[in-house]
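lol ok so funny story. i was supposed to be doing the assay writeup but got distracted and ended up predicting the structure for this chain instead. priorities right. anyway since i did it might as well share w the group, maybe its usefull for someone
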Amino acid sequence: MVKAYLRYEPAAAFGVIASVDSNIAFDSSGKHLLAPALENVGVWHVRQGLCTKTLAPSASARGPSLAVTSIASSPSSLIASGYADGSIRIWDSEKGTCETTLNGHKGAVTTLRYNKLSSLLASGSKDNDVILWDVVGETGLFRLRGHRDQVTDLVFLDNGKKLVSSSKDKFLRVWDLETQHCMQIISGHHSEIWSVDTDPEERYVVTGSADPDLRFYMVKHDLVDGQSVSNTNRTDAVKSSDASTQNKWEVLKHFGEIQRQNKDRVASVRFNNSGNLLACQVAGKTVEIFRVLDEVESKRKAKRRINRKKEKKSTKGPVDVTGNGDASHEAGEEGEKPVLTVSDIFKLLQTIRAGKKICSFSFCPVTPKNSLATVALSLNNNLLEIYSIDTSSTTKTNAIELQGHRSDIRSVTLSADNTLLMSTSHSAVKIWNPSTGSCLRTIDSGYGLCGLFVPGNKYAVVGTKAGAIEIIDVSSGTCVEVLEVHGGSVQSIVAVPDGTGFVTGSADHDVKFWEYQTIQKTGEDSKHLTVSHVRNLKMNDDVLVVAVSPDAKYIAAALLDCTVKVFFMDSLKFFLSLYGHKLPVLCMDISSDAELIVTGSADKNLKIWGLDFGDCHKSIFAHSDSVMAVRFVRNTHYMFSAGKDRLVKYWDADKFELLLTLEGHHAEIWSLSVSNRGDFVVTGSHDRAIRRWDRTEEPFFIEEEKEKRLEEMFEADLDNTFESRYAPKEDLPEEGAVAIAGKKTKETLTATDSIIEALDMAEAELKRIAEHEEDKSRGKVAVFQPNILMLGLSPYDYVLRALSSVHTNDLEQTLLALPFSDALKLLSYLKDWALIPDKEYLSADANLYRGYRRVELVCRVATVLLQLHHNQLITTVAARPILTLLKDILHARVKECKDTLGFNLAAMDHLKQLMALKSDALFRDAKTKLLEIRSRHSQRVEARADVKEGRRKKKRQKKSDDVHVWS
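and the output, tada:
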């Protein structure tokens, strides 16, 4: 009889506030902050400091170790997140649900950017491509190719008609999205360009790289009546004579540079929503905030700069005839407008300095009343900080830090009743509720390497890297006592089976035995726990792990010399020496019946030993890196192992078989703990995440799991076939190229198979119907029995059902794999689908694809098939009647839909105007007057500045005349 096992599934992941692989972003309301949490996106309430929602991929859609690599928030409630496998998910932040998944990139998504209307999404990737996505239609429009290295950032220009992309190939590219070509290539940077952004009014584009300065470009928009409409308020920087000679393809014109304070490379540059601030984050601990001066201030600053230059010239040079000439020249320039430079417009305001390296930052879209802006920072130590920026200072207003550790989680320990979980790190000990993942206590401590709950769960003991034992009061969250007991780091703590004490192993070659005691200090009413040293076992090398058998008969110590020494617990006499590992043993455990001992080593092997004679039952190559933790499930010979290869594996120690491989962690796993009943497992990792794996009621068999692993290996190698691996790489043209947005996946191949199967079944059913009609005409009356596999649908509806089940984004790749014979069959169905009236329902399953949606689907399928099989169709005689019919039908249907939609849009626009007139009638005059007052005020300010400047010039002229008279 084949033995069945119960499956373990990933249940929860907690402890991660912000991972380092992606950026953070505010939502459109400014109340919530979107932070990457490995494969999830956490939605944090900024004021409360709580994670209100977690955007997590479904278990069926989630692949192994697919970390979030980019986040973008739209002006609406939509959120886009890019992943390491190149996929993009669109989320509804209010509902917390995934609206669609877009597949197109072959490398990790590096940047995402919405346009102002949230109708388009641009994505850049490590595969050097830029893809434009239709968010409403949930499909990819086209792929822009031309960059020679990773795309680092994107920004829309000209109301979404143009796109600027930056790359590590040191070039900026400006793409025309209407004609889908690269219209400008900009060089000038001497190193990789890491970020690009534009202000809300699209006057300037700024780029940041490893160069010591920020480069600025002026934006030239489309021409209106033969004149450029860009920078209408600041055309002083570009002479009118140059506008006529500018290249019509030139969108960005170099404006100037600003020297940065920090010499590290730029990681990100961003304007805030109001456009008055520019932030430059470097790959270090600082963010430089620049003030964007308005027109009046920048002109005033330019005038002062010009006057200072003139003063320097007048004081340095001769002051006779030349001085008079200069004076006349200044007088001639007095009526002219000064030429603005970058330094006149952008002024360094503040520098934010964080305690750790900054991963990313984000401006809050809502400007607070008492400050200029609010900025959120994500640090590389799993921390979020919120800063308020004023004109004179920058203050930290909030920090989200209690829900996670600042560094690696070195140990996880469950209490006896499995209700509490303790994790240790370099500076704190945290107590968690393992079922909910909430942090109950945070206690400051040393660098904890191991931990243990005292029976009763009132106290816990932690061994530190400094050689101390810390006694922690769990209920109050305080460290009661710190005992300096070892000369080296405490590597292992294990409880004595009777619950009266514990054993510690240290790098000072000692194994020490301890007992619990309760004492009352003088001046205190309550008693607290302490420990006393009972006996000592001296070893000849560093002790890495200690294990005690459940029957308290043996104690085992793993040493740095790659051996395991087993002693009798009562007399501490030597019993066995287990040797065979080539590298030191890093973890060890003894089964509940004290028959087996398992050791995991840095040589990547697990060895199962018999504790009676010390014989090695089996040596298993378990992990592709060091084995860091191993634990038996209580009362069984099943065991879990975890390693630096990020995997948790489930084993049968009797059959020496691998049962399950649990994937989920994104970095090395340091520790593992199994509940007393074996119903869940907890792991702690270098990625600062604590993961819980729950046992389900679903049985599985070893042979089935082996077959499944082989299938996964085959599917993983699907995109790396022999043809694609050794095929010559396409040479990209310098001006860029356009390609299909989607990519071949397992889903597209499955969809192609389902369409072919539906076409074959429908063809057979149509033949049966024709034969039945023929028999009926001959007088042979018989009841027609439809094919039950077609679910009661007609052949046309059944094929439409198979086609409509294909995801919109995967339609092109699905039809690309369709053979020409089946494509010809599919074309014959299109005319029947297009002729069905809009008000007629096709079937219960095809309700979504009636009316305009059905016409849109038919047009897309016809267009893709004509593009793919153009040469075969024009040479196939049987295809001509179908194409002739489709030409007339589709044109008429599309025109009908277009007219109806245009009429509805015009009606909605008319209603919008009527509502605006009704709601705004009382305040229209007030608004006009307010605008007039503002314009008058700005004119007065400018006039006063001119008067003051004139007075200063007169004073300077008088002084120079007096000097001339005396000379």
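The two ends are 119 Å apart (CA to CA). The mean pLDDT is 85.
back to the writeup now i swear
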